Amino acid sequence: MDPPRGPLILHLALIRTGTASMAKAYEILGYQNVYHGLKMMDRNQDWVLLEKAADATYPQVLNPGKTPPSPWTRSDWDSLFGECDVITDIGSFFSLQLLEAYPDAKVVLVERDFDRWWRSVQDTAIYALWSLPARIFSYIEPITGVRSGDTVRKMMLGFFNARDIHQLRRNAKERYFEHYRQMRELVPPERLLEYKLSDGWGPLCQFLGREEPDVEFPRTNETKEIRKIAWARLWKYTGIAAMIVGKYAIGIMVLGVALWLTREYGSDGLSFSNKYINQEPGGIRSLFSRIIGV
């Protein structure tokens, strides 16, 4: 049996550079199985594989002092991306490895002004992974078997060479520019398109050898979608966890919120948790109780 052909396009622009709009554009151009994080939030097997890929790619960051797993081979990457025509979005965290695995794929880069990009990342990815609802969800994930949150945190920490969110913030600017410099150095000019979404269909279609479609170039509001998905997943898996462990789920979630608030905000967080989690009729404890019916 022949191995999968592998992706035709590696869209190696980092997250929050219009990747959802670009993914839609590739689909309009006729590409199949365009890989984007927003599309596979509930595909848990993908998250299992992505976590293994992160552990193999960034062992010195994620598991220091431990024997690292073997680096992923073309066969390993095929198990995740082999049937995709295009890889976008979170695939960029493995850019160097994907360039090695798929040396014939065309590469598209979209680069934003760093300051605007970083504000966008903090409002979306950082919020979805390190905010209060994300912390609550991190206590629920082990109960439900979902790995998405932990996996994306691993990928981001590994890519930014960081042990925690504070170091990630410190390293963000350097790693951002390093990523784009590496892509320009490693990809031959004939296989590389540096693109701006404002350029429209022309340069993209010319580079890919496709006819320009008679529709407007897509514009997707990723910020709105990410926040919507983050909250929807919190409520969904809260309900699942409650069905699994019943009334004890409330105690677990309340404890998680209280611990997070206290750790992040000290005595102010402790005061907040005492007032709004435990005592107030409209607080988190009573809210969860009404939602899950225990």
List the helices and strands and how they pair.
Blueprint: E1 9-11, H1 19-28, E2 34-35, H2 44-57, H3 59-62, H4 74-81, E3 86-87, H5 95-101, E4 106-109, H6 114-130, H7 132-144, H8 148-159, H9 165-186, E5 192-194, H10 201-208, H11 222-245, H12 248-279, H13 284-292
Parallel strand pairs: 1-3, 1-4, 2-3, 4-5
Helix pairs in contact: 2-4, 2-8, 6-7, 6-9, 6-11, 7-11, 7-12, 12-13
Count of the separate structural domains: 2
Task: Extract low-pLDDT stretches.
Answer: 267-294
The outline comes out as globular
In CATH's first tier, which class of the largest domain applies? Alpha Beta
What would the average pLDDT be, to the nearest integer? 83
Count of individual beta strands: 5
Helical amount among residues, as a percent range? Answer: 55-70%
How many helices? 13
CA radius of gyration is: 21 Å
If strands are numbered along the chain, what order do they take across the biggest sheet? 2-3-1-4-5
Succession of helices and strands: EHEHHHEHEHHHHEHHHH
Report, as a whole number of angstroms, the end-to-end distance: 53 Å
So, CATH architecture of the largest domain?
3-Layer(aba) Sandwich
